[in-house]
Amino acid sequence: MYQKKEIVNKLRSSGLRPTKQRIVIAKNLFDRKKTFHFTVETLNIAIHRKCNERISLATIYNTVEAFKRAGHIREILTSNNKNYYDTNIKSHHHFYDPDTKELTDIDYQEVVLNKIPNPPKGKKIKDLEVVISLQKK
What is the average per-residue pLDDT within 41-69? Predict the structure, then answer.
């Protein structure tokens, strides 16, 4: 589990001052045993349930965006026009359940692609992520 010193170092490495509010946000993101998939709204709810600290939604948005830019979290694109994020930054894929709004990790090796299109001129593929949308049988 993350100690306060590790969280402060993570914030500083992102170019963020380790304010009390940012430490609370980082603790909620990274002090977990399992990968955390979230939206800013669900993170906001989780933070307000766990602590009495009032953190504005704008601060949460800004901190999440800073962590994404720093490479500490990943943004996951789904078909529901909602921004999801993942604390697991290693290459992997996801199942997405639109009924429950849940993402589930899929090991990178479990998805096999036979052909990937060439990227546009002047670009190269940085990463490949597959999101498989689910529905009830």
Answer: 89
